[in-house]
Design a protein that fits this description.
Elements lengths: L2 H13 L10 E5 L5 E7 L4 E7 L15 H15 L7 E5 L4 E5 L6 E3 H7 L6 H16 L12 H19 L4 H13 L3 E3 L8 E4 L2 E4 L6 E3 L1 H18 L4 H15 L8 H21 L9 H16 L5 H12 L1
Antiparallel strand pairs: 1-2, 2-3, 3-5, 4-5, 6-8, 7-10, 8-9
Helix pairs in contact: 4-8, 5-6, 5-9, 7-8, 7-9, 8-11, 9-10
């Protein structure tokens, strides 16, 4: 652990009046992300989790993003806490000078990380539906006239963190479908209707007393809700490819998410949102193989299969998720 991280942690907690100058602290760096320094801090009687945004992400390709995105994350977490307090993390304050914040550290016998459960095959089968309800509620509330969107006009950050590395970079690897990917990128950049989390991934979702808590919202912006939907469903799809014995289970979870999310759509026709989701989803599948942030668990044959299926679906997209899942299952069979 670098002294710099330890010093930043102490400075943050002191600025937020959580510790005094002579408080003894123990700092433990945490893994699990490429975009931030995250640490657990313990004192004799308290524990916190702190997070600082990094200017260069920890991936092989050059990938830079502004550190002020930490404020967007804090704003999203605050809005989630106001909207769904039982599905939110406790926050202790944000530092403009350090571009970091402190929150509760999630640790208890009834808490587990959704990604670990999916990969171990120990998920209960109810998680995706609950996550769909949570995301649907956030999207729905952000579409109301009284929602204050002033802290979420972060389209340039969203471009740097999501659109460029997932769509534009992948387009350079596949010239035959580059126009389709770049058109999607342009539409996502100019969308500003709904508050988008931007990283609804199983690695960022804890289940606490069987209820989902979503973290890591540094990509939060006003945008197109199809991104959150597609980004999450992509992880279920990739795990269906990675774990053939769980294929039916994970594709059913795709529909469980959509069925729970669907009733909250009040800002546009549900069919139109579903159509855009089915266009973006295979593009994100391809991005997690050939983009700047490939998933770590697909072996080469599965990467090839993912690429093959994604390219077909980008060229001939489905209009609804039921057809998407049915045809994906046939491809995998």
């Amino acid at each position: 652990m670098s002294n710099t991280l330890s010093q930043k942690c102490r400075a943050l907690l002191a600025e937020l009046h959580l510790i005094s100058a002579d408080t003894k602290i123990t700092v433990q760096p945490l893994s699990g992300g490429v975009a931030s320094d995250i640490a657990r801090i313990d004192t004799d009687n308290s524990t916190w989790c702190v997070k600082f945004a990094l200017p260069k992400l920890k991936v092989e390709a050059d990938w830079f993003a502004p550190t002020h995105r930490n404020m967007a994350e804090y704003n999203w977490l605050s809005f989630a806490a106001e909207t769904l307090p039982h599905n939110a993390i406790r926050l202790f304050g944000f530092s403009d000078t350090l571009q970091g914040f402190a929150m509760a550290y999630l640790e208890a016998e009834d808490i587990y990380l959704y990604k670990n459960a999916l990969l171990a095959g120990t998920d209960t089968g109810t998680e995706a539906g609950k996550i769909g309800k949570l995301i649907g509620t956030i999207h729905n509330r952000s579409a109301t006239p009284e929602f204050d969107d002033s802290g979420f006009h972060n389209q340039d950050d969203f471009w740097a963190l999501r659109i460029e590395p997932y769509l534009c970079y992948t387009a350079t690897r596949h010239p035959e479908i580059s126009k389709s990917l770049l058109d999607m990128a342009d539409r996502l950049y100019h969308a500003d209707r709904i508050l988008v989390h931007g990283d609804v991934s199983p690695k960022n979702i804890f289940l606490r007393a069987a209820e989902p808590v979503i973290l890591d919202a540094e990509c939060a912006t006003m945008g197109d809700p199809c991104f959150d939907i597609s980004f999450f469903l992509n992880h279920l799809v990739l795990k269906a490819i990675h774990m053939p014995h769980r294929q039916t289970h994970n594709l059913r979870a795709v529909m469980d998410f959509w069925d729970s999310y669907h009733p909250f759509i009040a800002w546009e026709a549900a069919e139109e949102l579903e159509r855009r989701t089915c266009q973006l989803l295979p593009a994100l599948m391809l991005a997690r193989v050939d983009g700047k942030s490939p998933v770590e668990y697909l072996h080469p044959a599965q990467q090839h299969k993912t690429r093959e299926i994604a390219l077909k679906m980008i060229k001939s997209p489905y209009a609804n998720l039921n057809d998407f899942c049915h045809n994906l299952g046939e491809h995998l069979s």
